[in-house]
Write a structure and sequence with these properties.
about 140 residues, mainly alpha, single chain, about 5% strand, Four Helix Bundle (Hemerythrin (Met), subunit A), globular
């Protein structure tokens, strides 16, 4: 069985590290691009959690979060995600962002979120390197 608790802890650590790394970016255009990507990463986690729990979110998958909102989500998401581990065998029904009905197993959603986060952190690391910053 997958150790989701460990993966979620890693995800939080990695999100915190990449967030700290892009605080040093001074170029406005690069910073805006990185913040958009990181906001998307965090928003997607929230949207998927809302599909599982039924809680509503007030934003889509491409919002523009400020630093305080990013910090709040980095801090709060792991406990919410870990709270879903006991439900990993459940299959949930939901509509995607285009209104198309789907069903997914909670464990598949959790794995998707870990992989999705890593994908976008790698993109941010590439942007940091292009800006001559050092990614974590």
């Amino acid at each position: 069985m997958m150790n989701f608790e460990r993966l979620i802890s890693y995800d939080q650590w990695a999100n915190q590290k990449i967030y700290e790394a892009f605080q040093a970016v001074e170029e406005d255009e690069v910073r805006a691009e990185i913040e958009a990507m990181f906001s998307h990463l965090l928003a997607t986690q929230a949207v998927w959690m809302s599909r599982i729990t039924g809680e509503k979110v007030t934003f889509g998958i491409w919002p523009s979060f400020d630093s305080s909102e990013m910090e709040k989500l980095i801090k709060n998401h792991p406990s919410k995600l870990k709270g879903l581990i006991d439900r990993q065998e459940e299959v949930i029904s939901y509509e995607n962002s285009k209104g198309v009905a789907h069903e997914s197993k909670v464990s598949d959603i959790l794995m998707h979120l870990i992989i999705h986060g890593q994908h976008h952190r790698a993109q941010i690391a590439k942007m940091l390197r292009a800006d001559r910053a050092t990614p974590p």
